[in-house]
Design brief:
single chain; alpha+beta; Jelly Rolls; six-stranded mixed sheet; 12 strands; Glycosyl hydrolases family 2 sugar binding domain-containing protein; Galactose-bd-like_sf; signal
Length: about 190
């Protein structure tokens, strides 16, 4: 009889152990997600961009390739654009380097990524259109119209990644105002403690 008196306590302890075992996978998944950090490799308004403005019909073969010689190009800071226009970004606080309307803007920037970088993402705003290249590969053609915020949003395929990477963009302006600003982020797994 004494053994039966302890049975409910034993069942309660067993249920507690079972509940902890069931909760362990969820806790492990949460801990794994907390061990990843989003890092900005190239921020909005970044410096060190080489750029060139060209008429829309001008071809510049290989400008998106890593081996292209841009040493004669000027260096500027993003955002590129005009300080007059209908977009909220067309002002002196946001535009750091002039970009004339009705032209194309070719921009290049080197980005260093650690070997364990994951989910490399390029985001930005353009008025009007852009072709986004990474290490010479066309990733996305964007038609945003008039400064659609976040119109540029693409994850770089793992096969296109290297430790030293080139982001190149050909942006096109159709008149009135121009704007381009970009950032690159990646996910870096954090070492478990």
């Amino acid at each position: 009889m004494n053994r039966l008196r302890h049975l409910p306590a034993a069942l309660t302890a067993g249920a507690l152990v079972a509940a902890m075992a069931l909760a362990a996978p969820a806790a492990t998944a949460q801990a794994a997600s907390e061990r990843a950090t989003v890092v900005t490799a190239l921020g909005y308004d970044s410096t060190g961009w080489t750029y060139r403005q060209v008429p829309a019909t001008t071809q510049v073969p290989g400008f998106a390739e890593q081996g292209f010689d841009d040493s004669a190009w000027p260096t500027g800071q993003a955002g590129f654009g005009t300080t007059n226009g209908t977009c909220s970004w067309n002002n002196q606080a946001n535009v750091k380097t002039p970009w004339a309307v009705n032209t194309d803007l070719l921009v290049r920037h080197w980005i260093h990524l650690p070997r364990d970088a994951q989910q490399v993402r390029i985001q930005g705003t353009v008025d009007n259109d852009a072709q986004v290249y990474f290490n010479g590969h066309l990733l996305k053609s964007v038609t945003s119209g008039k400064c659609a915020a976040g119109a540029i949003d693409v994850v770089v395929p793992v096969t296109d990644l290297d430790c030293c990477n080139l982001l190149a963009v050909r942006a096109h302006d159709a008149g009135v105002a121009a704007y381009l600003n970009l950032r690159v982020t990646y996910v870096k797994p954090t070492q478990a403690l």
